[in-house]
Amino acid sequence: MSDAYSLPETGFVRLPAILKVYPVGKSTWWEGVRSGRYPKSVKLGVRTTAWRTEDIRALIEAAGK
Residue 6 — very low, low, confident or very high, per pLDDT cuts 50/70/90? Predict the structure, then answer.
């Protein structure tokens, strides 16, 4: 896994940025979100979905252990 340092400290990140640091496929990611394996998304607009940076960093830290 790539390091989480390419993510911003706080705020929200979109799926393409997540997949650069957490290398899984798009459909695998969405299935993981549905099953609760990955963090829940936040709707920022009608066609805009993002995730809290803190949740993604926690996911990467947990996967590294």
Answer: confident
C-alpha 22/C-alpha 59 separation (Å) is 9
How many domains is the chain partitioned into structurally? 1
Helix (H, G, I), strand (E, B) or coil at 9: coil
3 pLDDT above the threshold of 70:
no
Q: Residues 6 or more apart from 54 whose CB is under 8 A from it?
A: 10
Q: In what order do the strands lie in the sheet with 48-52?
A: 12-13, 48-52, 42-45
Structural domain for 14, as ranges: 4-64
- Asked if 3 and 64 touch (Cβ cutoff 8 Å), the reply is no
> What are the backbone angles phi and psi of residue 53, rounded to the nearest 5°?
-60, -40
pTM of the model: 0.86
